[in-house]
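Continuing the series of single-chain predictions for the mutant panel. This is the parent chain; the variants come on the following pages.
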Amino acid sequence: MIMKYAQVVIDAVIGDGNTAFDYVIPDDMRIEIGMRVLVPFGKTLTEGFVLGLAGETSVPEDKLKYITKPMDGFSAVIPEFLELLDDICYRFKLRKIDVLRLFVPGVLRGKKTTRVKKRDAPRGLDATTQNRVVLTEQQQAVVDYITNN
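Parent structure:
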């Protein structure tokens, strides 16, 4: 059976964050469960996560929209994570979209990441060996805060 439709959870602040919307998969597009896709939602294009594939949909044809494009050439969320999704949402009272965001590294989601530079000179001692260790700026700030208060 050819999968023509994808159930997509939209990464947007509107809606309940749990509802999967049906989108048509264009014939020339390869879509897999767990992929991030760009889809029309309202008047904008937004990111979504494919949670399922189907050969049929109950949505009227005039209401269906097409997936614009896959965001990556691979599944950003591995099947093992998706198997845990409902349990995590139920247990911790979280929305699916919020949990899915946690599964995907910020680099993939377009979030700016910064590397923390290590200090050149060691400024701390390993508690178990008493050897000097190099602390990051953030670690040193915590040590300074604790020791000064």
